[in-house]
C-alpha cells in the first residue's frame, strides 16, 4: 500500500515549525480576505485538516469569537506545539490526532473545512478531498491551499541556477514520493469533480514587493534545512549543489533591487445544498 504520508520525516523535522510560521506570516494577510468572502458568521464550526502547528487555527478562531476550531494532524509533535500556543483560547480550539483521509468525524459537521499546504504533499489527494467534503455541511465551504512549485520565480544566475533546480526537483520528488508538487494547477477541476459548486481560484503573491524580504528569506532557509538532502538525492546533485541554488534564491530575496515571487493557489468551493 502506498504510504499516505511520504514526507513524514520532513514534516517532523524542526525546520517545519519555522516553515509553517514564515509561510503563515507571508500568506495570511492576503488569504484572510478570501476567507471572509465565504460569508460565514456567528458560531462557525471550523475544521483545519492537516493543521500542523496551528497558526491558521488561532487566526480562524479570532475571526469568529463565537466559533469553534478543530485542528487535526497525524503528527503528535506539531499538535503539542499547537496546543501550547493556543491554550489561551480554551475549549474553542481543540487539537486531535486524526488523518485527513479518514477523520472519523460525523458527516456534515463543519461550516468551513480548511486544508492548507497539505494536498500537494500526499498521494491520492482526491480521496482526501472527498473526506473533507463529507464532513462539511451542505452550503458550507471547503478552502484549500494546494501548492504548485513550478510557480516559483527567481532571477537567473549563480553556480546552480534556481530555474534548473526547480525544473528538476519538482517532477523528481513527485515521482519518488507519489504526490504532485504541481497540484495547484489541477485543484479547480479536482474540486469540481468532488461535487463542489462556486469553485474559485485566487493567487496569493508571495514576492519581494508584498512580503517582507526577511520573511521570504526565512521560508527559503527552512525549506533548505528540511529538504536539502532529499532534494539532492532525488536529482543526483550534491547537497552543496542544492545549497548553491538556494543561496542564489536567497540572494535575490534579500535584494534590495532584485525581484522574486512565489504564486500560491488558494482554491475553494461550496458543498451543494441537498
Please, could you describe this protein's structure?
This protein is α/β, with parallel strands linked by helices. The chain has helices at 8-12, 14-36, 55-63, 76-85, 125-134, 162-177, 187-193, 213-235, 239-254, and strands spanning 45-49, 68-73, 93-97, 110-116, 136-145, 152-153, 197-207, 261-270. Strand 1 (45-49), helix 3 (55-63) and strand 2 form a beta-alpha-beta unit. It is globular and about 55 Å long. The mean pLDDT is 96.
Helix and strand pattern: HHEHEHEEHEEHHEHHE
- The proportion of residues forming helix, as a percent range, comes to 40-55%
Task: Give the biggest beta sheet.
Answer: 8 strands, mixed
Question: How many H/I helices?
Answer: 9
Strand content: 15-25%
Q: Tell me, what's the shape? A: globular
SSE topology sketch:
Layout: H1 8-12, H2 14-36, E1 45-49, H3 55-63, E2 68-73, H4 76-85, E3 93-97, E4 110-116, H5 125-134, E5 136-145, E6 152-153, H6 162-177, H7 187-193, E7 197-207, H8 213-235, H9 239-254, E8 261-270
Parallel strand pairs: 1-2, 1-4, 2-3, 4-5
Antiparallel strand pairs: 5-8, 6-8, 7-8
Helix pairs in contact: 2-8, 6-8, 8-9
Provide the descriptors you would attach to this structure in a database record.
single chain; 274 residues; alpha/beta; 8-stranded mixed sheet
